Amino acid sequence: MLITWWYFYLAARSFADQTLKMASILQKLITPLFSGPPEPPRNKVTVVGVGQVGMACAVSILLKELADELALVDVVEDKLKGEMMDLQHGSLFLKTPKIVASKDYSVTANSRIVVVTAGVRQQEGESRLNLVQRNVNIFKHIVPQIVRYSPDCTIIVVSNPVDVLTYVTWKLSGLPKHRVIGSGTNLDSARFRFLMADKLGIHASSFNGWILGEHGDTSVPVWSGTNVAGVNLQTLNPEIGTDCDKENWQETHKMVVNSAYEVIRLKGYTNWAIGLSVADLIESLMKNLNRIHPVSTMVKGMYGISEEVYLSLPCVLNGGGVASVINMTLTDDEVAQLQASANTLWDIQKDLQDI
Amino acid sequence: MSTEKLLSRVMEAEPVGSRSKVTVVGVGMVGMASAVSVLLKDLCDELALVDVMEDKLRGEAMDLQHGALFLKTPRIVADKDYSVTANSKVVVVTAGARQQEGESRLNLVQRNVNIFKFIIPNIVKYSPHCILLVVSNPVDILTYVAWKLSGFPRHRVIGSGTNLDSARFRHLMGEKFQLHPSSCHGWIIGEHGDSSVAVWSGVNVAGVSLQKLNPKMGAEDDGERWKDVHKKVVDGAYEVIRLKGYTSWAIGMSVADLVESLLKNLHRVHPVSTLVQGLHGVKDEVFLSVPCILGSGGLTDVVHMTLKPEEEEQLRKSAETLWGVQKELIL
């Protein structure tokens, strides 16, 4: 009995010695000037879902140095920890000093921006709208937790079908509509600008063109706005985008719509382009840039749409979220297409349970 | 045609090809992480991807091209045919089998040698003046293999080596002291793998040698357990593989870091794998990581570390292990 106590004493003394030694090395090396609680993050971003899209968003955010803290959340704990460790091992090459991850949403507290990529993704050939009910159920778990820990954040919804799920997120979160954004046709427009610019031998950023409406099969290319250096393409070619266009420019829009299906067919999923496009949105929000992006926002009351649906329109993004929406001059046909999208989306939304 | 109405040509001839082209061989997780890191750091004006799996290759290239609006790399190309890699300044080789859970890197050797017998001559054919950066494991042996198969001078064949191990070490050191890893200095050299060597005498913060503050650093009776930190580095890859199936992001970023020094002629010092025959008592033609100066000519100089006898002994032992494997290879 005495011997047990003796060993216990020895262990405690050795532990105390080690702690003191460590403390004294640190003291010898570093003299603190200011002792207080650790500084809270000022530009924290959370990514919900560490699948291919979530990690592509995370890496783009890190390499563009947009955040001072990055939090990852998912339900698959091993994968989550592995991804966090892999990113942390690269911290020498990054300027984001804190990378954390947990199944528990408390790790996301005080985020300025939360990117939601969680949910099921399209299988080969499957339409985005097919994913709805499964993803609504997942969102019922996710969204209230996000808001609980970051009541002042702006949420960017990426999971598909993005327009419906942005509506769902808005309803479940209780946040004002300017702080719930869907990644929408930001990616479609980026693809469109790349493909059109490629045909002309110029960089995508020098080609201006907008794809609006549903992020999916019924997106609307606004041909009347396509221009290079202010030179309007429709003025050069009045048939542009129509069936009788000899240059068949509408093929480019078809390619945009099919892009995702094509990449999924070839490599199983898409991630790099969507990751880059999300980081681009975050840059405008974080840096209060007032840049215009085609993102999914609440469009009730515009273009004769009477339901609460989310569709992509050109939005001015700044530190507060969606500051304003640009009023496009659309042709009657383009307005009709938007209304048709709105109706399709409302048809799905009205049947959703308990949101 | 709208284009005729839109644009009037000024320059008569077509411009010369790209000036800082990077090729990535292998579009698996490591290859793509390297590609994305290189793209996001705006390091090259052309990126080429090569692989044998044609659908996957095309899909990855398309996915990157769709992000062109957000990037400053105007040409992204991909093909199974190596002609697409012509005139590269740096070729990053990530192709080959990877470790399964619990598998050591040395186990991958013969499979990857066979793959290199196809890849390396093709690279050399189309980019005879490039710098080869080998990442596939076991990296030290495969860098030797790439050197032999390419016929390149030794300053143009580099293995990513312990660049990542050192980064992991500096990250862990940063966590211990609540400092950014870039302010924590420590070098891990030797084999990229289980027998890497942590040079304790060089570990410092702001030039203050930690070993002077703690003479037992790295020893068995070290109260601060620095040996465990090194062990965590060695186990790091196995741990991440166990959790997510593979590692990608950290190695991708470390590759981009090396490519940056090479393309921008920075003359920075990195721990990378090079021919160490004649150094630290190593007699055989083996590649091990030591601090090297990287610039646009390649690996131009080696830094002579002052190592303790035990540390030199460890390096020689690694060299012997590697030579033991290398001399059995059919090249």
TrEMBL record, chain A:
Its EC number is 1.1.1.27. Pathway: Fermentation; pyruvate fermentation to lactate; (S)-lactate from pyruvate: step 1/1. It comes from Oryzias latipes. Residues 44-182 form the Lactate/malate dehydrogenase N-terminal domain. NAD(+) binds at residues 49-54, 74, 135, 158-160. It is found in: Cytoplasm. The keyword Membrane does not apply. InterPro entries: L-lactate/malate_DH (IPR001557), L-lactate_DH (IPR011304), L-lactate_DH_AS (IPR018177), Lactate/malate_DH_C (IPR022383), Lactate/malate_DH_N (IPR001236), Lactate_DH/Glyco_Ohase_4_C (IPR015955), NAD(P)-bd_dom_sf (IPR036291). GO terms for biological process: lactate metabolic process; pyruvate catabolic process. Keywords: Cytoplasm, NAD, Oxidoreductase. This is L-lactate dehydrogenase. Coiled coil: none annotated. Gene3D superfamilies: Lactate dehydrogenase/glycoside hydrolase, family 4, C-terminal, NAD(P)-binding Rossmann-like Domain. The active site is at residue 215. It is an enzyme of class 1 (oxidoreductase). GO terms for molecular function: L-lactate dehydrogenase (NAD+) activity.
